[in-house]
What does this fold into?
Amino acid sequence: MTDMWGDLVWAALADLKTRLMLVLPGILAMLTLAAVGLAGAWVSARVARRLAQAVAFDRRAEAWGIVAALNRAGVRKPPSQVLGLVVFWSVLVLFLPVAIDALAIPGTGRLTEFVFSWVPRVMGAALILLRRGSWPGPSGGACSSSRAPPPSPTWASARRWCWSRSGSPSAG
It folds into this structure.
């Protein structure tokens, strides 16, 4: 009786080893993709925060009324840090479904497709908000600003502005 029980335990352990060897590459791929996503999100957030600080985004956000809206919402961080957090979580949310798909678990195959199908919609909504000046104004509602949004610069003037900031000669 004890020989049969011992044989069953060893057979189960051998079966576990076989299954683990089949699943281990997927787990390692998932962990690698999650680590790359985490590192990429951290670097992207840091770059976004530094760029926002370099162009005085905090001061401009205060002039635009974004700081007041954030304060009303209970957010006490500077807008450059909020932007960094948004970038961090956006990049991480895009990497995690890819990491989960690396496991090749049945039923998760369309997760990446589902998440990435929302990217154009979110980007379009963000562009509409930025372009139309729909940030909450001083009176608290969306589109409540009494002034019209500033006209967008032409491509040539934007290019001249970028060249003047970099110290390179203007390419006209």
About this structure: The chain has one domain: 11-166. The CA atoms of residues 120 and 126 lie 10 Å apart. Residues 137-146 have pLDDT under 50 and may be disordered.
